[in-house]
Every structure is written in C-alpha cells, then in structure tokens.
Specification:
The complex is a heterotrimer. Chain A is of the alpha/beta class. Chain A is 28% helix and 26% strand. Chain B folds into 4 domains: 226 residues, Up-down Bundle (Fumarate Reductase Cytochrome B subunit), CATH 1.20.950; 110 residues, Alpha-helical ferredoxin (Fumarate Reductase Iron-sulfur Protein, Chain B, domain 2, Orthogonal Bundle), CATH 1.10.1060; 141 residues, Rossmann fold (3-Layer(aba) Sandwich); 121 residues, Rossmann fold, CATH 3.40.50. Strand 9 of chain A pairs antiparallel with strand 9 of chain C.
C-alpha cells in the first residue's frame, strides 16, 4: 500500500522530514504529492481526498507545519476520519499506534489511531530529513464549496533580522525588569546580527510587542544559538526555542528550570553579564 | 448692637460654611472607627495637647506648640474682650481678675508672637521645600491675623492699664504694663482702648468666618481627626465588601474612590484637616527621589475636589482630575507620611482607595504589574512559579512539611513567596530553618499549600484578588489548627497579624527576628560576637513603622557585631523601595534603593543587615548598581554565621587547650 | 451590523517549568497548579468582545470541560462575554472529533443564531489543530485559521493569517469559523463589576454523550531526558570571555 506525502512544490526541510517519516512505514516508497495551484486549504484537502479515494493509501502524511496541519485537518473533516497532528512515531495496525507531541513538546501522548487511511502530520524536527527525495507528483487542485483562498499577501512589518530565520536569537524574560532594560539585549543581538526575542511575561507586561514573543503561542525559532536572559524556562517558552541547536542561559537564579534545558549557563544578573559580554565581543572583533 | 451684628454676620458666614462641611462628611461613605476610646483619649492628650507629632521636628514643633497652647490659654480672652466691648468696665467673673491668669496671658502673647515671627522667618528666609505646592499666601494671611489678634490684645491690655481699668493686678502682666507706658491717661487713650478691643474682636470674628474656608479649619478638625485615627494595627487596610449587605444594592458597593462622592468620611475629615505643612512630602521616599508624588498634594487635591461646587464635580474622576495618575503609582506605602503628619492624616488609605478604583473598576494600572496580578490569582505566587516547588528551598534541611490532616506544630513557619522562590531571599529561609532546628523549635512549613498572602495585590488596589487569597489561606491555616505563626517576611507578618483577622484568621504572629532574638536571649542559640563586624541595620517599613518591631532585630545585630546605625532608622526608616507592589512596578526618577544604600554606606559599616526579603533584594540590587562595598544579609543569616563562629571559636580553644 | 459570536475555550493547567504526571499516566498532576483559558482562546474571546463593542451583537463563550471549567467561563464573562454554555465532559478526555461534534450539536441546537465562531488556533495542551476546521465543515461554513487581525467590511470578514514572511488576507462570507492566534490583541484585565456580574450570570449546562474516541489517548509520557548537562561558563560578568569563546566555537561571531 502506498503512502501519500503532501510536500511543498520545492520540498523544504519539513517536507523532507515528512518523506523520511513516510519511508519508515511499511507501505512501500512514499509518493510525494504537491498541489499545483494557489493555497486554499479546503481545496487542497479535497484534492487529497480524491487522490486517496483513487489510490487507497495506508496513510496520508504531511509536515507538521501550519499549512500541513491545516490541510490535513480539512482532509479529516471531509473524510470524517481521525487526524493525528504533530506525530513522532506511527506504527500501523488495527488500530495504529502513534506517539505525538503535547504542550509544544514538553509532553508526549501515546494513542491509538483508528480509521483508514491514517491521517498524520509529522512533528517538526522529530526525524532527520530524507537524504534523497522522490520525484514530486504535481496534482491539479480540486474544488471545494468551502474553499477560501487568500486575496493578497501583505509583507511582514518590522525591520531587522526576522525571528524565524535568525542564526542567533537573544531573548529576554521577566529578569530584564523593564522595557528600557531591553536596550542591552538589543545591543547584543545587533552585535551578533541576530534577532531579539522575549517571553510571554514580557509581552503581558507590555515591554515588547507580541511579534517578539518566542514560545508555544508565539514564534517558534530554530537558531544556531538561543541566548535566554532572565528567562525562567517555563514549558510554554521552551516549546518555542527547543528547535535551537544550542542554548545559552543567563539567569541570576542557579536553580531556574532553564538550566535543565541549556547547553551553556551563566549564573548572574543579565544586567551585569550582558554589558561585559558586549565589551568582550567588541574587544575580540577589534583584535 | 454692633457687636451683636458682627457676631451675627461672622456666625452666619462661619455657620453656613460649617454646615456645608458637615454635609460633605455626612454624605461620605461609611467606615468603622469605633471602639478603643481609652486609646483615642490618650492620643488626644499626647498628640493634640502634647503636640507630640509636631515636636518630631523640634523647633518648628515648638513654634507651633507655642501658638497652639497660646490659643488655648488665650481663648477666655475672646469672651473677656467681647464683654469688654459691651461694658467697658466689665470682665469675666473671677478669671478676669486673676493675676496668675494675666501673667499667663502676657507670657503666651510673647510666645505666640515668637512662634509667628519664627514661622515668618522659616517661610520667608529659609523657604524649605516642603512648602512647595502649599498656599503660601493663605499661610501668610493666617499668621498675620494671629499676630494682629495677639498684638491688639496686648495693646488693649496696655491701654486698660494706662486708664486704670485693669481688673487684674498690673504687676502680674509685666509686658502689658511696660506697653502701658506708651499711653497717657487721656481721651486719646480712651479712644484707643475702644479701637484696640474692636480690632481684636473684629479680627477674631473675621477669622472665625474665614476659618472654615481656609486650611486653618484644622483647628477644629485636627482634634477630631486625631480621635478617629487608627488605634492599633497601623498596617491594616480596611477591607471592602463585594456582597451587598441587608438593604444595600450591588450598585451601592464601593470599590475604592473613583470620585469625591466615594471617599469615606474619615478621608473627607483627613482632607479638611490638612495644614499644607508638607512634612509628609519631605518624608516621602518617592518625593525625595524626584518622583511626582507628594502626599500633601494628594490630600490637597482631594480637598479641592470636595470643595468644588461646579456641575458634576462630585462625580468627576479623581484621577487624573484631582490627583495625577503617576502620583498614585509612585507610592510605596511605607507610611512615612502618616508618621510625619501632625494631624493624623492617613494618606495611604487615600492612595490605596484611588488605586482600588483604578485597578478594580477601570482596569487602568501600570501594565508591567499585570503578570503579577494574574499570577498571584492563578498560580498562587506573584512570579508564576510552580507551587509544587514552593518547598524546594528546604531540600535537605529536614524541614517538616505539614500535610493535610496532620496535627499542627507549635509554630507554623510562613516562608512567603520571596524566600520560597527568589535566589537571594532563599538564604534567609534556609538560615532560619537551620536555626530553628538547632534550637529545637517545633515548627513546620506549609510548602505548596502556602499561597501568597495577597499583600502585593492588596497594595496595588486589587482588593478582590486579595480577599480570595486571604480566605483561602485562612481556610488552610485554621483548617490545620495553626495557632502561632513565624512570619519570614514583614509584609506577610503585617497581613497575617493585622489583616487576616478580618477574614476569620486569628493567629499569634511573630516575625522571624523576634523569635530568633528571644532564642538568643534565652540562651537556646549562642552566637559569638565579632567586634570587627560593623553592621548597619535597615529597618523594614512594615516591621518598624507599621508594626513597631524595633528591638528584636537590633538585639540580634548587637549580639553579632558592632552596630553603626543610620540617621533614618527605627520608625524614621527610609524605605527600600519595594513596598506598595513596587517590586513589580517600574520606577521613575532616582532609584529609592540606591538612595538608601548610599545612606548605609555613609555609616562606614561593612554589612547592611535587613530583616525582610524585599529589602534583601532591593538593597542588594542597590549595592550592585551603585557599586558600594556593602554586604547585604538578613539578621537570620548573620545569626547563623555568629553561631558557626561560636562553634569554631569553641573548637579552636578546645584544640589549643587539648 | 450586529454580530452574534460564539467563542470556544478550553480549561488548561498553568504548567510552569516542569510537568509531573499522575501515577496512572492518564493526566498531568494538577494538585498544586492553577488553571487558565488556553492563551490563543483568551485572545479569541477578547476579539469577540471588541467586535461586539464596536458593532453591537452578543458574545457567548462555550467550553467542553469538567465542572471546574465553570471558573474559565466566569473569567471570560468577566471580560465581557454575555452568555456561557458549559458542555460537561465528565472525567475522560474527548478526542478532537468528539469535541467538534459536541460543539456543533450545541451550536445548532442553541436558540441563538451565530454569525461567527471564534476558536484558538490550537489548545495549549493537546494541540490537535483541528477542532475549528471540523466544526466549519460540519456546519458548512468557511474557515480560516491562524488569524492575527479581523475586520468587518459589509457582508465580509477580512482576516489576516500569519504565514512565514507576512500575512495572507482572506475575505470570508458570514457565517464563518475563524481560529485566532495570541497576539491578535492583548486581553483586558477583568474589572470587579465585570466579575460580580459574571458570578451571577446563569450558565447553560448540557451533558453530551461522549462517543468512542477515534484518536484514543492511551497514556502520557515525559519526553526522554535530553541528557543535557549544562556547562556552567561562569558567574556574573567574569563569564564574558568564556562566552565569547563559545560564540567563536559555534561560529556565530560575525
């Protein structure tokens, strides 16, 4: 039995991960499918529904991106089938067993997935991307009564390095103390050509806009280095930065939970550490 | 007769105005200031008659005391003068002819004039900052009127002596007699005698009509205000009700003071008693560090709003109409203003009531405090930490955590949120726990079942959230059969001891420094003193000023090292800046904590001792940011070090002799 | 033009820094935890209240949850929802399909006809990303997710969906289903008069039958320990040189 995998027309990293996931299933080589048309989730889902009706796959897989989750949710609604979002592992069976992500990654659920085909999106970065990618089958989009497509795209507001793509993110939490306190965070971020992030407490306090918020309900970042300053390490924040390759935590409280997630730690007041760090970096560059 | 007409005019003017003031008081919201009559009477004697609060600043206090006592002594002369107007030859029976009374009158005339003269000197030459914002012209007028009254009295007496009309032996009034030499026994003097008595009485009657329209109203209201001031539990805020009582509608419920109509009668009386002296302004740590807040201007602003008769003034928003919004939030509820006020105005009540309305009705407050309000309500502590980890500080110390259903220990050690979660304040709880264990005290902590007492929410004005926390904590404490509590933090101490009784929680509460001092005094903990350890002790506002806990921490410091007190200590202490929920609010102007740290450094001490987790954090922050070489440590930490010192000294001497 | 909106919320625990499970691994240990409305959803209710403040209409808040979820309904009424519907879920979890059908049942049988259903994009705990979409299909209404701005123009709802690099603008005809993301607004702090009013408001309580789950939770597990041991580079400002060394090793020093 085949496995259908919804990918981007130009498969990106998440698409490659979904393909790797699909390849692990016992359904044979995955069939990579991309929709040849503008994005309209209900229509894309209808397309997949018709494809599934024709090919009776074991499973329809998509990356656990916003788009992947949305399309497959529509597909599940159309086919009246259960759908398992952000899946870590899938073992086909009667019923299939899955493990999936809860709480942005701080908890794992083991569940039984009924129905056929199995509708599953793959939790981002839970599996290494496939090395070789199969040819992508382009499919004409079907129509769906409820399909809505965007009428236009508006550009991102805000200047500077984008949080999603920055190689370095310097992030501040409650410990920064005030809106003005972020000046040193901004300075360090600028020096490292990175982006400024913050925790939810900071946006609640009105010190930074929500667009800076990193976390389960904010932006999820995957930089080379995430520098968490004055951030305690609440699970909902960690959900946003666990994609980081390396995490440096700077916190005055040596017992803060963030140190359990950090690769490197500095125990101290960020208002002392960061200025010293900025000086050292300038010195190193000057040298 | 002319006098009757003058009396009538003055009386009517004064009476109408007084009626209006009374109406404002009667129309105000209720508050309970009943009971404790003995203490109230004592306050009248000490504060009013004895001018004790005024004498907190000795020379200006003495100056005012002269004028006040002069007013008391000279009061009968008003009657004497009025009788004298009606019948030149008559006076008050008996008193009018007493030599000793005449002597007192002469003396107090001089003292009053000395007072007025020094007041003018201060106002015109010295020009202290505390008068900024006060109505200086009005003050000058009042002083001038007082001077006129006294001078005209002296001159009247002088002319009566000169005319031989004095009913008292002239020798008893040396100044009047001296002045009488200016006047011959002739027709001019007869005329002048009438002139002076009319000036005297006329000025008094004019003053009477002016009195209730000016800040001099305080001579009537101050005594009343002192009577109705707090008699106990200075740190207790009056609770609000969120359920209408019998016959009350929900719309009548009062959630603080949003408009003049919502002030309580005590707040109205406070406003009527303000003399614009500015001592509160001087004492205010926010004002001292360049912030907008002036407690004096808050009270004056409310008073002016009360007197405003224009359309809609009574319902108009007090903030920012009468009081700038910034001022409301600058306050750290340290109580220095209340302490300084000679007429027992309770400024904190006003500011908290303004906050209550802003927070609970308008949801208008500094946004940086919103996470604290949400966390304290939903997570049980102001930082949103997990309550399950509340006892983590005690890991490995063998501290008993009281589980539901277990018998209560002798003492419940109430640790508080700061010492449970803050990395610096934790040291205090750990030291205290070790000390209590070493002394064999039977104690336990509640751990995760201990929620925030609600102090930060209450001081911010969120009475609703505070009461929910209070009720929950009382249920936990009383349900566990707790009788005695050791409070680690002065804010918890204040709330548990003074405010929880309003919610059915009556416990015997001591601060950790009190119990530790008692253990040292009883010899159950024996520290060694290190003379070279120079310590300056910073009194926590909530311990010293609100609750009179002064001696115990000092006893500890004295037993551990060499105390080098700061000038502003004891009840005169200068706040660390964290009170009034300021631990969670941003500060404008110069930082209060750095101001205090500078003062501490000036004593030359190497250690800055504290007894409060907020003070620990704020003053340590202040030391870091101002680069002073001071070590900030709680008295419990220092005591533990003293004990270790004693042990190592004992060991050393054993080794030496062994 | 008056809008009648129903906002759906879920009661979730405030997990803080560490999650602990019950012994039977069926749930998070919530003994000392506080609860709240899931963050995206609180913004959904706030958005509903703002729309109705501007244009008139009504806001109903609905939840499928245990009896304790009444706390969340009252919290949402305190910020301005006029009505509340409580679908009692019993002690077991409902999977997303069952949740959606219970909501659809409640909406269609409600006396109030709705123009707009607002949801949070995904719940903080289970994060299934599908309930709003299922509800939309069942009702035959169009649906847009991950919305960061909503405005009303004539018969259409203009929704901005957050996508990498910007926002896609959708025009929806009403009635519609929209799921929003935190950041669309900053929810207001409830006033005490609001809370008191919310306390007195009656809540419509229904007890739907829980169908057999088709995404059936077997147990919960904590993710395996990353095995990370933090390397402490130092204390305070003195750690700066060590940090710079690490930055160099990681190749992030420009």
């Amino acid at each position: 039995m085949s496995v259908l995998v919804l990918v981007e027309r130009e498969p990106d990293e998440l698409s490659a991960q979904a393909l790797a996931f699909a390849a692990q299933l016992d359904g044979g080589a995955p069939v990579a499918v991309a929709i040849d048309g503008p994005y309209a989730p209900a229509a894309w889902a209808q397309t997949l529904a018709e494809l599934a009706a024709q090919r009776s796959p074991l499973a329809v897989i998509a990356p656990g991106s916003e788009r992947g989750n949305e399309v497959l949710a529509h597909l599940a609604a159309i086919l009246d089938l259960p759908f398992c979002a952000n899946t870590l592992t899938l073992t086909p069976g009667q019923p299939a067993t899955v493990t999936r992500v809860r709480w942005g990654g701080s908890l794992i659920e083991e569940a039984r997935l009924h129905g056929s085909p199995l509708l599953v999106t793959v939790a981002p970065h839970a599996i290494a991307p496939a090395q070789t990618l199969p040819e992508v089958e382009l499919v004409e989009p079907a129509a769906h009564a409820l399909a809505v497509a965007p009428t236009k795209r508006v550009g991102a507001t805000g200047t500077g390095v984008s949080l999603e793509t920055a190689r370095v993110v310097v992030s501040g939490g409650r410990g920064v103390g005030s809106a003005e306190g972020f000046a040193v965070i901004e300075e360090l971020a600028a020096l490292l050509e990175g982006a400024v992030g913050c925790s939810r407490a900071v946006t609640s306090a009105g010190w930074r806009p929500h667009t800076d918020q990193v976390g389960q309900t904010g932006t999820k970042v995957a930089p080379e280095l995430y520098i968490a300053c004055g951030i305690s390490g609440a699970t909902q924040h960690m959900a946003g930065c666990k994609g980081a390759k390396k995490l440096l935590a700077i916190n005055a409280d040596g017992e803060a939970s963030i140190f359990a997630h950090a690769d490197y730690g500095v125990i101290g007041d960020l208002h002392e550490v960061l200025p010293a760090l900025v000086d050292e970096i300038r010195k190193a560059r000057g040298a | 007769m002319a006098l009757a007409a003058a009396l009538g005019a003055s009386g009517t003017l004064a009476g109408r105005r007084t009626a209006r003031l009374l109406a404002l008081v009667r129309a105000a919201k209720p508050t309970d200031r009943s009971g404790d009559e003995a203490i109230r009477a004592r306050n009248e004697l000490v504060v009013v008659l004895g001018q004790r609060k005024l004498l907190q600043r000795f020379w200006p206090g003495l100056m005012h005391a002269f004028v006040f006592w002069g007013f008391l002594v000279l009061a009968p002369t008003i009657l004497i003068a009025m009788i004298g107007i009606v019948d030149r030859g008559q006076t008050l029976p008996w008193l009018g002819s007493q030599g000793w009374y005449a002597a007192m009158v002469d003396l107090f005339c001089v003292l009053v004039l000395a007072g007025v003269a020094s007041a003018f000197y201060v106002r015109k030459v010295v020009r202290p900052k505390r008068f900024e914002g006060s109505h200086k012209g009005e003050a000058d007028l009042i002083l001038a009127l007082i001077a006129t009254i006294v001078v005209s009295l002296l001159l009247w007496h002088a002319t009566r002596i000169a005319l031989g009309l004095n009913e008292w032996p002239a020798a008893w009034s040396p100044l009047s007699r001296l002045l009488s030499h200016l006047f011959a026994r002739d027709e001019t003097t007869r005329v002048l005698e009438r002139v002076f008595v009319w000036i005297h009485v006329g000025t008094i009657l004019a003053f009477l009509a002016y009195l209730p329209r000016s800040k001099h109203l305080h001579i009537a209201t101050a005594a009343l205000n002192v009577w109705f001031g707090r008699t106990a539990a200075r740190g207790r805020l009056e609770p609000l009700r969120f359920e209408p009582s019998e016959g009350e509608r929900e719309e009548d419920l009062r959630f603080g003071a949003g408009s003049a109509a919502e002030l309580t009668w005590k707040e109205v009386l406070d406003a009527f008693s303000c003399t614009e002296c500015g001592r509160c302004q001087d004492a205010c740590p926010a004002n001292q560090t360049g912030k907008l807040l002036s407690p004096k201007l808050v009270i004056m602003g409310l008073r002016d709003q009360l007197f405003d008769t224009s359309e809609g003034a009574r319902e108009a928003a007090l903030v920012p109409g009468a009081v700038p919004e910034e001022s409301v939030w600058d306050c750290v509820t340290c109580g220095a203003c209340v302490q300084a006020c000679p007429v027992s105005i309770e400024h904190i009540d006003h500011i908290v009531d303004l906050r209550r309305h802003l927070v609970m009705v308008e949801s208008r407050f500094p946004s940086e405090a919103e996470p604290m309000l949400r966390d304290v309500e939903r997570s049980g502590n102001p930082w949103g930490h997990q309550q399950a980890q509340r006892a983590d500080w005690a890991a490995g110390l063998g501290v008993r955590v009281l589980e539901p259903g277990e018998a209560a220990p002798e003492y419940l050690y109430w640790v508080g949120c700061a010492s449970s979660f803050d990395e610096r304040a934790r040291a205090t709880a750990q030291a205290t726990a070790r000390l209590l264990t070493a002394a064999g005290v039977d104690f336990a902590i509640l751990g995760p079942r201990e929620s925030c007492t609600g102090d930060p929410a209450r001081r911010m004005g969120n009475e609703y959230v505070f009461q929910a926390l209070a009720e929950q904590n009382v249920q936990t404490l009383s349900g566990a059969g707790v009788r005695k509590i050791i409070a680690n933090c002065p804010h918890c101490f204040n709330t548990l001891a003074n405010e929880y009784p309003d919610f059915g929680g009556n416990y015997e509460v001591v601060h950790h420094s009190e119990l530790l001092a008692r253990l040292v005094a009883e010899g159950r903990l024996v520290p060694a003193r290190d003379e070279a350890l120079t310590v300056t002790y910073h009194d926590s506002c909530y311990l010293a000023r609100h609750n009179d806990v002064l001696e115990a921490p000092r006893a500890l410091v004295g037993a551990l090292g060499t105390p080098l007190p700061m000038a502003r200590s004891g009840r005169e202490t200068f706040c660390c800046g964290a009170g009034g929920a300021h631990m969670w609010m941003e500060e404008r102007g110069r930082p209060i904590n750095e101001e205090r740290v500078r003062e501490a450094a000036q004593t030359g001490a190497g250690t800055l001792a504290v007894a409060c987790p907020y003070c620990t954090v704020m003053l340590d922050d202040g030391v870091q940011s101002s680069g002073q070489a001071l070590r900030v440590a709680d008295v419990a930490t220092l005591l533990e070090e003293g004990l270790l010192r004693a042990q190592s000294e004992a060991q050393a001497s054993r080794q030496a002799s062994g | 033009m008056a809008m009648h909106i129903c906002a759906c919320v879920k009661r979730v625990p405030l997990t803080g820094g560490r999650i602990t499970l019950t012994e039977d691994e069926q749930a998070i240990l919530t003994k000392h935890l506080g609860f709240t409305v899931s963050p995206h959803e609180e913004c959904a209710v706030e958005e509903a209240v703002r729309i109705v403040e501007r244009e008139g209409g009504s806001v109903t808040v609905l939840t499928l949850g245990p009896p304790e979820a009444e706390e969340q309904l009252r919290d949402m009424m305190a910020i301005g929802a006029g009505r509340a519907i409580h679908l009692l879920s019993g002690s077991k979890e409902w999977d997303p399909q069952a949740t959606a059908s219970a909501i659809v049942q409640a909406i269609t049988s409600d006396e109030q006809a709705y123009d707009l259903l607002l949801f949070g994009n995904e719940s903080a705990d289970a994060g299934n990303y599908q309930v709003p979409i299922r509800v939309a299909h069942a009702l035959g209404w169009p649906c847009v997710t991950a919305v960061k701005a909503i405005s009303h123009e004539g018969e259409h709802l203009i929704c901005e969906q957050e996508v990498p690099g910007g926002r896609d603008v959708y025009e929806l005809s009403l009635p519609a289903v929209v799921s929003v993301k935190e950041g669309i607004n900053l929810p207001r702090y409830p006033s005490v008069p609001g809370r008191l009013r919310a306390k007195r408001q009656p809540i419509v309580s229904l007890a739907p039958e829980r169908p057999a789950p088709r995404l059936e939770m077997v147990r919960l597990m904590l993710p395996p320990d990353s095995g990370k041991q933090v390397q402490v580079l130092g204390h305070g400002a003195e750690a700066a040189p060590a940090i710079v060394e690490v930055l160099g090793e990681l190749g992030v020093l420009p």
